[in-house]
Amino acid sequence: MGHDLSVRTSAARGLTLIAVFLAPLFLGACGGYHMITRDAKPSDYAVKSKKATLVIIRPTNWSGSVGSITIGPGHIVTNYLDKKMIGQTRGKSYFVTDVKPGTHYLMAQSQNTAVARLNFESGKVYILQQLLFPSLNPFQNIPRTGFSTMTSEDFLKEIKGADFLMYDAAHPGGDMSQKDFQEARDDFEKELKEDPGRHKDTLHYKGLTRL
Asked: Which residues pair with 114 in a beta bridge?
């Protein structure tokens, strides 16, 4: 009887540890989703005279596993512009948002917080690819994320197989806290001081006048 109790206790502890490690995966993949899939994709991406247009596209699916649990294209990456949530991506998807001209910090949260600093100009389109990388944590196979620029040719090719998403303004998500924003921004600026060539593709990105 004592042996059976010991076995059950060990099993329970094991399940508890698995739940602790996997909880963030299910929260990211199932909860807090604030996007709507639209069947009708934009027919053009005409520039706006008083605003800049930002397009974030995640052209590929990502899959990994923790034990027998597979984390795939449903994994959500949340994007913020100066703390404000502007949209989320999952596998093979993209969204579009207007941006007030000027310098802004774009941040994405997955296992890490990725940061890009861009100088947006009115009348231009900025296309950024949402990158995914394998986890550095052996107990949490949540992908890391990052940004890179994308050419208009590649973008027009990739959207053919991607879902067009719109931010659900009727059910908005929470914005980034001031503390988290400042920490991510300060880390980004520190990285630039230590390695000025880092992030150069997004720092010097001038955008496009048309697609």
From this structure: 108
